[in-house]
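Curious: why this fold?
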Amino acid sequence: MLAALYYVLKGDPYKALKEDLESLKKAKLLTEDLRITEKGMELIQQLISKPISLKGKVVSGDGEGRYYLSLEGYRRQVREKLGFDPFPGTLNVLLDPTSTEKKSTLMFKRPIILKGFTENGKRYGEVLAFPARVSGVEAALVIPLKTHHPPEIIELISPVELRKALKLKDGDEVEVLVY
């Protein structure tokens, strides 16, 4: 599961992993034999307990979120696991470069897994969900394990239409707090 999450978050897993390991060693968070240092453990504890702030600009999607959130297999799981009935659509955000890098720290959070299912003979894949807030409004950042979005695009679901509730249009800047 962690490998799949890493791939979705970072793109090329081997290149990204090698770069990340080198930067962790330089920062004295890992030893040369890849053991987590005391400083590394302190950082992990901070990452687990604090919300992650991601910033970017609202962008239009292709409407696929509306389709997937109309499927009862996903709707039921969102109600049961996230505690809200999702608006049938997603808010797409193009992350700034710093937030795109910070997105990889989601691997330290425990995702809520929306399990894949079969409906009308078609297979739908797993989705990782992370509770979030956008300008104080309840939401969840969702990461389908099969997606066509590049790593710098995130999708948010909510019990309300986020564009309307927050009066957002393409190009507006938003901050997403992921818990």
Q: What stands out?
A: The chain is about 35% helix and 25% strand. The helical segments are 2-10, 13-26, 38-49, 64-68, 72-82, 97-102, 162-165.
